[in-house]
Amino acid sequence: MDVQAIARRVEEDLAAAEEELHAAQEKVVETQRRVNELHALRDSFALAVERYGDTAPADTEATESAKVGRTQRAARPPRERVKRPRRSTSPEPAPGPEGEQSLADACLAALVSFRRVATTNEVRDKLAESGRPVPVERVRSSLGYLERRAGKIKRVGRAVWEPQG
Predict the structure, then answer these.
(1) Which of 21, 52, 80, 148 has the fewest CB atoms within 10 Å around its CB?
(2) Does position 10 have pLDDT exceeding 50, yes or no?
(3) Fold observed for domain 103-163
(4) Are strands 160-163 and 118-119 parallel, antiparallel or unpaired?
(5) Which residues partner with 119 through β-bridges?
(6) 115/23 Cα distance (integer angstroms)
(7) Phi and psi dihedrals of 79, rounded to 5?
(8) Do 155 and 145 touch, CB atoms closer than 8 A?
(9) Which is it for the CA torsion 54, 42, 100, 153, positive or negative?
(10) Rounded CA separation 84/60 (Å)
C-alpha cells in the first residue's frame, strides 16, 4: 500500500469521524433542551397542583348548581367598583418575614455569586443549596422583577441572566 493512499484514507476517516462528532453534539444540545423543557413542565405542574389542587367538579350536581349561581349573578345589578390600593412603584423589594432576605435579594445574591451569566435553574439550584428551596416560577418572577423594576440585572438570552455593572 502506498503512503498517499494511506494518507487519503486517514483524511476520509477523519472527515467521517468529525461529521459523527458534530451530529452527536447537535443531538446532545437538542436532548438538553428537551430535558430543560420537561423540568420546567414538571415544576409548573407541581406548582399548579400545589396552588389549585383538584378543582374539577366531582359530580354533575355541583356543575348544575354552579350554572344556576352564574345565571343568578347575571340577573343582579352591577356593583360599584371598589378601588384597590395601588401597587408600590418602589424599585426596592419588600423585606421578607422576620428580617429574612427577600427572594429578589436572594436571587440577586445567588446570581452575583456565579461571577458569570447564569440560568434561572442555576439560580434556583443555588438558592436550594443555601437552604431556600423555591419553585422555579417564583425565581423566574423575581429575576424578571430585578430586570424590569429594579434594573439590577439584565437578560442576555432565554432564561439567562447577568448582574448589571
Answers:
(1) 80
(2) yes
(3) Arc Repressor Mutant, subunit A (1.10.10)
(4) antiparallel
(5) 160
(6) 32
(7) -85, 160
(8) no
(9) negative
(10) 36
